């Protein structure tokens, strides 16, 4: 009986796989859209599903296969998507025609995740986005820089104590980004470098350290988007929720104020957070979204504590590992490129001799540091998913000269390439080389800035990009001021990505030797 049942199930799965496979092919053919055949059930993502290749490279093979096409057919497992290769067309659908593509695909059902800004849809998203946006204006960011400096000092101290050792920087950096988020988002002062076993760090690790069961659930959720899997460990979710609610209660009762995101969420819940007025000293000048683009139609909405906890959770989830992986890659690249490091050091040293510290206003004057960071974000963007769901029928231009236009239907998913654009020699000559000079004022006209989208694009782009950039720059500043980063035997050169991970990580880790500067 059981055997027969299994045979039945396997037959159904195979039949579904084959049906889906041929259905997708005939669909793309009928509409004149190019595609790579892939395999039943795994589509174009077989090698990354089986951990044989990093997903970035697997997607890149498909991107490279059709150099003349604006968009192509891409099957993620069994899900059919239209993958856009042309930076101008990406801009068009994410900025100009944003109203047709406002939402991300709904994947996980964990309440803290599905109630977060990232997953919210339509009007509800507009409300929450405009509620939270004031939390990321210049005047708010200004107050957070001291937290970042303090946390950077902890890292510098630790590196001085362990000087001369070869260090796998991944873990150390995750302690930095963990502490920054703990402090700026949750109002918790932790020093994870000293206090290795603090609960905030441990629960955080648990959330991003996907087991094979969780990975399987993620793949299944892509195949069956309505399957309702909860993928995050319950105790970790409870922990974060508890922190948010108890901190809010405590502050409410004791009239405590602290310039962090909990405070901003509390103000938001009462509708007292000041509006989108940017202060004049807002000099960082990052491309953040025009607030008018997301302005909701209805009245100001009040949010429940649970909904606010979900936002604190997404700040943690979206902010902690992405920033860490960029920093790790920056240190790895600096160790491999001593000339770049020296130029950076000269700039930072000069600034430090003049000002004795780095402040919110000092950051934009560090041009080369900006180039180093952008070059890292170009080569190693932590962004795999840049999807949008179509809200109402939308006609794309023909995929290539002589092709016919294609109309995306409601509910269909489009996917924007990021990593492949950043590594396309058409936009960035010698893409494998780490050259911050690409972004210098003289050279800038030779690259295509619309093909640089590490934080996404349009009103739905990363809400915290300026926060992230500050956080990254502050640590880069202090570390390059105090240390020479050196290659050691374990440093992989060139950097190669670990297959079977969703995160951008070097095989065997990123090993660097830190030599203190005298
Ligand atoms: C280097 C660091 C980071 C990178 C590269 C990054 C990148 C991204 C990208 C690509 C998106 C999707 C954009 C799109 O679909 O167009 C996004 C969304 C988001 N990010 Fe970031 N991010 C970073 C750091 C952070 C940090 C530190 C936070 C929070 C403190 C954060 C919070 C969010 C949120 C809440 C969203 C969803 C926004 C919405 O749907 O309206 N991110 N991020
Ligand atoms: C991640 O999980 C694996 C097992 O699932 C465990 O062996 C490993 O120690 C964990 N790593 C961290 C950093 O928690
Ligand atoms: C670096 O990237 C940011 C966006 O992420 C952009 O605003 C800035 O102009 C870039 N810097 C240079 C020098 O191109």
From TrEMBL:
Keywords assigned: Endoplasmic reticulum, Heme, Iron, Membrane, Metal-binding, Microsome, Monooxygenase, Oxidoreductase, Transmembrane, Transmembrane helix
Subcellular location: Endoplasmic reticulum membrane; Microsome membrane
TM stretches of this protein: 6-22
CDD domains noted in UniProt: CYP6-like
Entry-linked Gene3D superfamilies: Cytochrome P450
Family matches, as PROSITE patterns: CYTOCHROME_P450
UniProt cross-references to Pfam families, sorted A to Z: p450
EC number: 1.14.14.1
Cofactor: heme
Tree of life domain: Eukaryota
Main subcellular location: endoplasmic reticulum
Membrane topology: Peripheral membrane protein
Catalytic reaction equation(s): an organic molecule + reduced [NADPH--hemoprotein reductase] + O2 = an alcohol + oxidized [NADPH--hemoprotein reductase] + H2O + H(+)
The family this protein is said to belong to: Belongs to the cytochrome P450 family.
PANTHER family referenced in this protein's UniProt entry, alphabetically: CYP9F3-RELATED, CYTOCHROME P450
Function: May be involved in the metabolism of insect hormones and in the breakdown of synthetic insecticides.
Protein name: unspecific monooxygenase
Organism of derivation: Plutella xylostella
